[in-house]
Amino acid sequence: MLPVLESERLLLRPRTEADLDAIAAMNADPLVMRYIRPLGDPSMSREGVKARSFLNVDRGLGYWSVFARDDESELLGYVGLIPWPIEEGAVELSYRFAARHWKQGYALEAGARLVRHGFAGLALPQIAIVTHPDNAAALRLAERLGFRRESDRLDGLIGDPPVPGACFRHSAQAWRAADQAAIGLNAR
Predict the structure, then answer these.
(1) What's the half-sphere exposure (Cβ side, CA atoms, 13 Å) at 91?
(2) Which distant-in-sequence residues (6+ apart) come within 8 Å of 95 by Cβ?
(3) pTM of the shown model
(4) Considering its fold, how many domains does the chain have in total?
(5) pLDDT per residue over 63-100, tens digit each?
(6) Cα 136 from Cα 149, distance rounded (Å)
(7) Which residues form a coiled coil (predicted)?
(8) For a FRET experiment, which of 52, 128, 171, 176 has its CA 20 to 30 Å from that of 116?
Protein backbone atom coordinates (compact mmCIF):
# COMPACT_ATOMS: atom_id res chain seq x y z
CA MET A 1 0.00 0.00 0.00
CA LEU A 2 1.28 3.44 -0.87
CA PRO A 3 1.45 5.96 1.98
CA VAL A 4 -0.51 9.20 2.16
CA LEU A 5 1.99 12.07 1.86
CA GLU A 6 1.58 15.72 2.80
CA SER A 7 3.34 18.97 2.05
CA GLU A 8 2.66 22.49 3.21
CA ARG A 9 -0.41 22.97 1.00
CA LEU A 10 -1.02 19.58 -0.56
CA LEU A 11 -2.30 16.10 0.21
CA LEU A 12 -0.86 13.31 -1.95
CA ARG A 13 -3.21 10.36 -1.64
CA PRO A 14 -2.63 7.01 -3.36
CA ARG A 15 -4.70 6.92 -6.55
CA THR A 16 -8.05 5.14 -6.32
CA GLU A 17 -10.55 4.11 -8.96
CA ALA A 18 -12.66 7.09 -7.88
CA ASP A 19 -9.93 9.38 -9.31
CA LEU A 20 -9.93 7.87 -12.79
CA ASP A 21 -12.70 9.99 -14.35
CA ALA A 22 -10.95 13.24 -13.33
CA ILE A 23 -7.64 11.94 -14.69
CA ALA A 24 -9.24 10.87 -17.97
CA ALA A 25 -10.82 14.33 -18.28
CA MET A 26 -7.42 15.95 -17.70
CA ASN A 27 -5.95 13.65 -20.36
CA ALA A 28 -8.60 14.86 -22.83
CA ASP A 29 -7.55 18.52 -22.46
CA PRO A 30 -5.49 19.65 -25.49
CA LEU A 31 -3.49 22.11 -23.32
CA VAL A 32 -2.50 19.40 -20.86
CA MET A 33 -1.66 16.85 -23.55
CA ARG A 34 0.14 19.22 -25.93
CA TYR A 35 3.59 17.82 -25.14
CA ILE A 36 2.60 14.34 -23.99
CA ARG A 37 0.46 12.24 -26.33
CA PRO A 38 -2.07 12.74 -29.12
CA LEU A 39 -5.62 13.42 -27.98
CA GLY A 40 -7.62 10.23 -28.08
CA ASP A 41 -4.62 7.97 -27.38
CA PRO A 42 -6.22 4.85 -25.82
CA SER A 43 -3.51 4.67 -23.14
CA MET A 44 -4.75 8.02 -21.81
CA SER A 45 -8.42 6.96 -21.55
CA ARG A 46 -10.03 5.96 -18.26
CA GLU A 47 -9.49 2.27 -19.05
CA GLY A 48 -5.91 2.87 -20.21
CA VAL A 49 -5.11 4.76 -17.02
CA LYS A 50 -6.80 2.09 -14.89
CA ALA A 51 -4.80 -0.68 -16.58
CA ARG A 52 -1.47 0.75 -15.38
CA SER A 53 -2.42 2.65 -12.21
CA PHE A 54 -2.07 -0.15 -9.68
CA LEU A 55 0.54 -2.46 -11.23
CA ASN A 56 3.51 -1.68 -8.99
CA VAL A 57 1.96 -0.74 -5.65
CA ASP A 58 3.45 -3.86 -4.03
CA ARG A 59 6.91 -2.39 -4.83
CA GLY A 60 6.03 1.00 -3.30
CA LEU A 61 5.66 2.53 -6.76
CA GLY A 62 2.56 4.05 -8.27
CA TYR A 63 0.54 7.22 -8.57
CA TRP A 64 -0.61 9.75 -5.99
CA SER A 65 -3.61 11.99 -6.63
CA VAL A 66 -2.94 15.55 -5.51
CA PHE A 67 -5.47 17.64 -3.61
CA ALA A 68 -5.32 20.92 -1.68
CA ARG A 69 -5.04 20.07 2.03
CA ASP A 70 -7.83 22.50 2.85
CA ASP A 71 -10.17 21.23 0.09
CA GLU A 72 -10.04 17.59 -0.94
CA SER A 73 -13.05 17.89 -3.23
CA GLU A 74 -11.12 18.62 -6.44
CA LEU A 75 -8.25 16.65 -7.92
CA LEU A 76 -5.52 19.14 -8.88
CA GLY A 77 -3.39 16.59 -10.71
CA TYR A 78 -1.17 13.67 -9.92
CA VAL A 79 2.43 12.64 -9.34
CA GLY A 80 3.92 9.19 -9.62
CA LEU A 81 6.99 7.09 -9.14
CA ILE A 82 6.78 4.43 -11.82
CA PRO A 83 9.10 1.91 -13.44
CA TRP A 84 10.92 3.58 -16.30
CA PRO A 85 10.35 1.38 -19.35
CA ILE A 86 13.52 2.66 -21.05
CA GLU A 87 15.95 1.33 -18.47
CA GLU A 88 15.65 -1.86 -16.43
CA GLY A 89 15.31 -1.17 -12.69
CA ALA A 90 15.08 2.60 -13.07
CA VAL A 91 12.23 4.73 -11.70
CA GLU A 92 10.66 7.78 -13.34
CA LEU A 93 8.92 10.74 -11.71
CA SER A 94 5.67 11.37 -13.55
CA TYR A 95 3.40 14.37 -13.01
CA ARG A 96 0.42 16.05 -14.61
CA PHE A 97 -1.86 18.84 -13.43
CA ALA A 98 -5.08 20.27 -14.79
CA ALA A 99 -4.38 23.46 -16.74
CA ARG A 100 -6.43 25.60 -14.33
CA HIS A 101 -3.97 24.63 -11.59
CA TRP A 102 -0.79 25.58 -13.46
CA LYS A 103 1.48 28.40 -12.27
CA GLN A 104 0.58 27.94 -8.60
CA GLY A 105 3.61 25.92 -7.55
CA TYR A 106 1.65 22.69 -7.09
CA ALA A 107 3.83 20.60 -9.43
CA LEU A 108 7.00 21.77 -7.69
CA GLU A 109 5.61 21.17 -4.21
CA ALA A 110 4.11 17.76 -5.00
CA GLY A 111 7.14 16.71 -7.04
CA ALA A 112 9.54 17.69 -4.26
CA ARG A 113 7.49 15.74 -1.72
CA LEU A 114 7.46 12.64 -3.90
CA VAL A 115 11.19 12.90 -4.65
CA ARG A 116 11.78 13.05 -0.88
CA HIS A 117 9.67 9.93 -0.46
CA GLY A 118 11.53 8.17 -3.28
CA PHE A 119 14.98 8.86 -1.86
CA ALA A 120 14.30 8.87 1.90
CA GLY A 121 11.35 6.48 2.10
CA LEU A 122 12.06 3.99 -0.68
CA ALA A 123 15.87 4.32 -0.78
CA LEU A 124 15.86 4.68 -4.56
CA PRO A 125 19.39 5.27 -5.89
CA GLN A 126 18.17 7.62 -8.64
CA ILE A 127 15.04 8.98 -10.29
CA ALA A 128 14.57 10.02 -13.91
CA ILE A 129 12.26 12.50 -15.62
CA VAL A 130 11.53 12.40 -19.34
CA THR A 131 9.76 15.41 -20.80
CA HIS A 132 9.24 17.09 -24.14
CA PRO A 133 12.29 19.20 -25.10
CA ASP A 134 10.02 22.14 -26.05
CA ASN A 135 8.02 22.14 -22.80
CA ALA A 136 9.80 25.05 -21.10
CA ALA A 137 7.75 24.78 -17.88
CA ALA A 138 8.54 21.07 -17.45
CA LEU A 139 12.24 21.64 -18.20
CA ARG A 140 12.37 24.37 -15.52
CA LEU A 141 10.49 22.18 -13.05
CA ALA A 142 12.95 19.30 -13.49
CA GLU A 143 15.86 21.65 -12.82
CA ARG A 144 14.16 23.25 -9.81
CA LEU A 145 13.64 19.76 -8.36
CA GLY A 146 17.39 19.18 -8.61
CA PHE A 147 17.40 17.01 -11.73
CA ARG A 148 20.17 17.45 -14.29
CA ARG A 149 19.63 17.10 -18.01
CA GLU A 150 21.51 14.15 -19.34
CA SER A 151 20.48 13.68 -22.97
CA ASP A 152 17.64 13.43 -25.42
CA ARG A 153 16.59 9.80 -25.77
CA LEU A 154 15.54 8.31 -29.09
CA ASP A 155 14.06 5.41 -27.14
CA GLY A 156 11.99 7.82 -25.02
CA LEU A 157 9.74 9.41 -27.65
CA ILE A 158 7.17 11.89 -26.38
CA GLY A 159 4.59 14.22 -27.89
CA ASP A 160 2.60 14.48 -31.11
CA PRO A 161 4.44 14.18 -33.40
CA PRO A 162 6.83 12.06 -31.33
CA VAL A 163 10.26 13.54 -30.62
CA PRO A 164 13.15 12.29 -28.47
CA GLY A 165 12.37 13.06 -24.85
CA ALA A 166 14.63 15.29 -22.74
CA CYS A 167 16.02 12.97 -20.06
CA PHE A 168 16.88 14.27 -16.59
CA ARG A 169 18.27 12.35 -13.61
CA HIS A 170 18.66 12.99 -9.92
CA SER A 171 20.65 10.79 -7.57
CA ALA A 172 20.00 10.05 -3.93
CA GLN A 173 23.52 11.23 -3.13
CA ALA A 174 22.97 14.64 -4.77
CA TRP A 175 19.53 14.93 -3.15
CA ARG A 176 20.94 14.22 0.33
CA ALA A 177 23.73 16.77 -0.18
CA ALA A 178 21.24 19.44 -1.29
CA ASP A 179 18.88 18.55 1.56
CA GLN A 180 21.68 18.82 4.13
CA ALA A 181 22.81 22.15 2.64
CA ALA A 182 19.23 23.47 2.92
CA ILE A 183 19.03 22.31 6.55
CA GLY A 184 22.31 24.08 7.29
CA LEU A 185 21.10 27.28 5.64
CA ASN A 186 17.82 27.17 7.55
CA ALA A 187 19.65 26.65 10.87
CA ARG A 188 21.59 29.89 10.55
Answers:
(1) 25
(2) 77, 78, 79, 80, 107, 110, 111, 141
(3) 0.92
(4) 1
(5) 999 999 999 999 999 999 999 877 778 899 999 999 99
(6) 13
(7) none
(8) 52
